[in-house]
Amino acid sequence: MTSPLFVDAPDQLMSVEQMRSMSGLEFIQGIVEGRHPAPPICRTMNFHFLEATKGRVVCEGAPLFKHYNPIGGVHGGWFGTLIDSCVACAVQTALPQGFGYTTLEYRVNITRPLLEGSEKVHAIGEVLHVGRRTGTAEGKIVGADTGKLYAFGTTTCLVLEL
After folding, report:
1. Does this model's pTM top 0.90?
2. Which of 12, 60, 64, 139 gives 50 a disulfide partner, CB atoms 3.0 to 4.6 angstroms apart?
3. pLDDT at 1 > cutoff 70
């Protein structure tokens, strides 16, 4: 795995013109390979893009203490961020050059808790359908070593011309 290319300011992100010049798969694979900047949320939520093929994205991460909720477990937003990232980016990998997405809605069901020091997890997103106006995908968060299911969810994305 290549180390993620983290950036510290908006002007270090790829421009719309740069993104417009490649397919969605080329764009996401560039993040996986460290040729394109990783989204800043990756550093905040402690995950990175592990693999990308057409219609499928895998992220890897582990929660930290800073991701805890008031009652001492990992906040549901951490699970939501990983699911939203893998499923929406799976939709992006199916889009042609010049197109992007925005999340219209997503849903997450958490099946078991995670804590700091728990195993690393994989967030796996797979496309169900991509059309001219919308894309849908489903995803799950599983233990990287055990395969235990921690969460699952779906998204609907609006397809946009960049």
Report:
1. yes
2. 60
3. no
